[in-house]
Write a structure and sequence with these properties.
heterodimer; A: SH3 type barrels; 2 helices; 28% strand; elongated; B: alpha/beta; four-stranded parallel beta sheet; disordered C terminus; binds iron/sulfur cluster; carbon dioxide binding (chain A)
Amino acid sequence: MCLAIPGKVIEIISTKDSSPFFQFAVVEISSVRRKVNIELIKEEGVLPGDWVLVHVGFALEKISYQEAQEQLQMLSLLGEEKQFIEEIQGYRLGKEREDGPQDKEL
Amino acid sequence: MQFVDEFRNKELIQKTAQEIARRVDPKIQYRIMEVCGGHTFSIYRFGLHELLPPNIELIHGPGCPVCVLPMGRIDEGMSLANDDSVILTAFGDMMRVPGKKGSPLELKAKGRDIRMIYSPLDNLKLAIENRDKKIVFFAIGFETTAPSTALTLIQAKKLGIKNFFVFSNHVLIVPAIRAILDSPDMRIDGFIGPGHVSTVIGCQPYEFISKNYRKPIVISGFEPLDLLESILKIVQQLQEGRNEVENQYNRVVRWEGNRTALKVIQEVFELRPYFEWRGLGFISQSALKINKSYAQWDAEEHFQLNRIVLTDPKSSQCGEVLKGVLKPYQCKLFGKVCNPEHPVGALMVSSEGACAAYYQHTGRKEGITDSL
Ligand code: SF4
């Protein structure tokens, strides 16, 4: 019920061929393409290539690639010395922010 | 799949579980409630409970929207389908939920027009295609789902659709957490906070848990690594004597929530003075009713609904399981009498119900992938 699944925005459907009031997008969820209502995240701005969380036909929120990466990095360093973590983190995260690999597969 | 596989990485899962084991004080028993049924489902599906040290006990919370509906309310909703001019619609979760006179699926087999829908917006299509019928949506769900019902109503109003009605059973998670904290037979040390509800309401509404009740709560995602990291964060807080609202799921949940979603809920709904929850009884201001400006689409206004009060069968212990007082297998009916083929309570039907999660997944775990 409260399940929501990540999907990738393929294209924003122009309002003309969509419903008269709502904004929709084509979103690929587990390689199936669906028409999804993007009204709730319109204000944030949605572009093709963005990842969104889909629940009962509506995109609930955008998913941040960077936050996901940082979390995974933190976990991979569990159990390491604190000082070592700080060093690695400062270096890796700083660099990634500059490069910003937004759409690279993990 | 991106944002899924990498959070099921075996090595990281083991590492995180080891870190939890390293952190816990073996002399202390940790009682941690996962509020959301989606979390219960993930815990059993991936066998996460088996990765935890024995002194961490996971208590299943009330966050399963079909499970918390009293049987009387289910029958009230289904009675709407007795009207020949009505097409009753519901999400898949609802279709097998037993009422006194059978489930929606059984009523459908007896000739009632009850249809399963995927999105609340499907109702509008049905309404336009069936102008001579009244489409009634049996709406359920927490704050995650309420915005989509609200947007559907807003759209119905704009399109001037008159043959669509909503039977609102939207409930709110925060008052339920408060009721659990106030319940005298409950001892909980920390909470795994609901992830998708929080995309809508944000993190701030949970602050009373840390301020007034001095318990940690960590808003969590649904993948194995999310849940383990959240448990680790709770254990860390307890070890360090902190009680804070933390957001583990920050790749999706923003501290302030989703403003648009909150706005559309406000536009369409108002708080009910009280609402009955299975197991938790009446909780004040814990559910949403359609407000005056949308009364025309409110099934409770349009149809003559008789309140049906039913108590659960004596031997079933759905209420205790919902409150986390009993484990599913401790219910007298679990397994033999109550199972997914013949469910007695909704907890055995919904994928988010603790009993179904237990029945289907204990002793049988699904693959945790090796990617990354
Ligand atoms: S086993 Fe069945 S009757 Fe018992 S608590 Fe679970 S759903 Fe309710």
